[in-house]
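Researcher: Please generate the 3D structure of the following complex. Treat every line as part of one assembly.
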Amino acid sequence: MKRLLKNEGFTLIEVIMSIAILSIVSAVVLQLFISSMDLNNKSRTIDVAGVYAANAIENLKALTSEEARVIKQDQEWLYDSDWQLINDNKSAQFKLVVKLRENIDVAENFYEIQSKMIDQKTDEVLVEYITGHYYFKKE
Amino acid sequence: MKSRRSKVSIESIMVMLLMIAFSIAVSLMITQGSQIFKQSIDNKEEDENLRIAMSYINMRIKQNDYADKINLESNVIEGLSAIVIEHIDEEEGFRSYIYYDDNYLYECYTDEIPTKEISTQIIDSNGIRFEERIDKNQLVIYYSQRRGQDMIELEQIITLRSN
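Model: Done. Output below.
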């Protein structure tokens, strides 16, 4: 009150300094929000990649032992950034690689299935599943 | 009155303008920040719910995957389709009905006629529908997921071991 009566206020330097400090703090807080959004997007991408990789394994499990025996080469699927299946390798962002190998050391008709989703832009493996499956011979 | 007016300098006006500009910027930043924060939390919650729903259905099916014990039946509970799991051994006679209604995934575990009243809410979801691929012995579950302004369907395939 005394200060007001004396007609004293903040100097321009004080005002500018406080504005600068508040601006820096706000920028840091906003940056945190943006990082959180990025993390959410990344986590969603990994979730979807996991579902596609798991689906590929489930589809291989649906084969008969004769059908599985025919598959010798690795299978690849390409997806764009919206997870649409495409054929063009250059514009593909994600690549799903599925390997099916018979492991007769365990048992006849026992296969190891490996499914891996790769982000082609960063060369990062988003998810990788390895499982074993026994194909019953159908009568 | 004259002497008061003369005291208002250019410097003071500039400081006032600076303060106004700053307060506008701060209020914009707070509004935008709160919107981003809310959206971020909503997305996170939606993704978590989707993950829970997917792993719940997957787990229930894999745990009870015996020959001819899992089927997709239509018009089971008040006209709704449901994954029906018949239990064995000590739970013989009991059935689990997994279905989606009114933004929720439900499960009804009973040995009587299933109803919504005796069902348990599992998790809320944007939308779930089921499909059976009999030729491949697969159950396909479609989950609605928000991507930006659009809703897309995420497909989860489960091959039944009991083929």
